[in-house]
Amino acid sequence: MNDKEVVLSGIRATGNLHLGNYYGALSKFVKMQNDYDCLYFIADLHALTTTPDPNILHENVKNILAEYLAAGINPDNATIFVQSDVPEISEMYLLLNMHVGIGELMRTTSFKDKARKQLGIKSGSEDEDIEKQIIGTDSNKRVNAGLLTYPTLMAVDILIQKAHKVPVGKDQEQHLELTRRFARRFNSFYGVDLFPEPQNFNFGTQSVKVPGLDGSGKMGKSEGNCIYLIDDEKVLRKKVMRAVTDEGPTEPNQPISAPVQNLLTLMELTSAPEIVQQYRDAYADCSIRYGDMKKQLAEDILKVTTPIRERYHDIRNDDAYIARVVRQGAERARERASKTLAEVREIMGIRKFY
Ligand code: TYM
Questions:
Q1: Distance from the Cα of residue 31 to its chain's centroid
Q2: How far is the CA of 21 from the centre of ligand 1 (A)?
Q3: In what order do the strands lie in the sheet with 199-200?
Q4: Which of 117, 218, 295, 339 is flagged as catalytic?
Q5: Number of C-alpha atoms within 13 angstroms, CB side, residue 44?
Q6: What is the pLDDT of residues 227-261, one digit of tens each?
Q7: Per the confidence metrics, is the pTM higher than 0.85?
């Protein structure tokens, strides 16, 4: 009997993976695979909440599978699967939704952000305005119900595998908090001890938020500020060299500006600690040269991404290998999911007559 703690995490199939996905999630997936009982999946059902082109969706699932493998997830150590290959998830999503409030879903930050986008409302408008528009809009300009129930589906991904640890970036912590709340609510409503309360995992450090290089907050696909794992050397160097900085410090020990802090944050993730310190000191004594700093950063990022990029294309072209990995993964993931689903059905009173 395997008594390792269960780890589960996933990434939406919305394109290629960027450094935010890597440091927030994928690099942890790779590091955790030998010490835990790990399941990593591609969230294609979650990707449907932003209604992608059907052909592009399928290609995106394949991209991420190839990136998981190229980054070093070993399918013999960890279970790699596609969310839609586990139909038990969709059934349990329906069942769990009976215990989830519309209000708590509507208050979720990611829902409000995405609903704003779908309705074309400027950020900064009052929540009340968004709510009015959601209820009042005609059916041509709608916020889809799948987007609202995104956290239920994510909670089911986690709970159906009875996961203890969920390595994700900082932006997903609200969803994890909801998952814990739903787990507690289900356990206490039915007087059972079925679901553990899952926790984020970061090797003892704080959860990660990888910044963009455009001086803005977060690196993200919809922000258009991403460095992708499969960017070739030239593209990657160009992106880093174009990163926003400031005019340079004018007084010793002045506070570090936001765009330069973003560069340092990326350096902290990719470069050796002495190098980061060297640039902090250079900022403090006003001798910093942003050109040198960016060159160093680009080199250090390339050290991480080059081996992944080099493996990626071969793996992505190997349809037979990919099919083998996900078939095996689906089998393993379904075996556990179907057990949990059977328990949930029984607990909720969905029983058969024959
Ligand atoms: P997604 O595809 O938006 O993000 C995938 C992972 O990448 C992390 N991430 C970041 N981390 C740090 N800095 C950034 N700039 C950054 N951008 C993205 C995210 O935190 C995430 O860990 N809802 C999930 C997918 C999902 C899931 C699950 C995850 C569905 N079901 C169950 C865990 C468990 C998501 O939004 O992925």
A1: 16
A2: 7
A3: 79-82, 37-43, 6-12, 165-166, 199-200
A4: 218
A5: 20
A6: 999 999 999 999 999 999 999 999 999 999 999 99
A7: yes
